[in-house]
Amino acid sequence: NSYQLSSLPLQILFYVNGIYYIFYFLATLAMIVYKSDVFSYPDDFLAPDLALLFIMAVLEVLRLHLGSKGNLTEEEAPLGLSLVITVGSVILAVYFLVWQTYVLKADVILNALLLFTYGLESVLKVVAIAAFVS
């Protein structure tokens, strides 16, 4: 098969999402520090919020690595695994959007944009997987 099945838009989105996530992580970390300083942030909620942010960062690195590798090598398994990990990332983004101790307008904007890119990426992953399998 001499056809190239890997998705250029998906690969570009992985790159953009990687850059955006670095910004997202630093901004969210800075806001947690800000909120713990300005508001009466309960001590028993600060550690879990920070832990979830770091877990999300690890998931993100794994998700983007597997997705990019799967797309470039035209293998559905790593791409599918990346899609499964995206579910966990979506749940964590929703946590930071809705359930964290204090939600600022900046949190809403950052997480809405992240969820939008996850949605777009997921659609492109499904299309790519379908192309690889057929």
UniProtKB/TrEMBL annotation:
InterPro entries assigned to the protein according to its UniProt record, in alphabetical order: Uncharacterised_TM-17
CC per GO annotation: ciliary transition zone; membrane
Principal cellular location given in the protein's record: other
Subcellular location as annotated: Cell projection, Cilium; Membrane
Keyword terms: Cell projection, Membrane, Transmembrane, Transmembrane helix
Protein topology in the membrane: Multi-pass membrane protein
Matches recorded under PANTHER family: GEO07735P1-RELATED-RELATED, TRANSMEMBRANE PROTEIN 80
Protein name from the UniProt record: TMM80 protein
Originating species: Glareola pratincola (Collared pratincole)
Organism phylogeny: Eukaryota, Metazoa, Chordata, Craniata, Vertebrata
The gene coding this protein: Tmem80
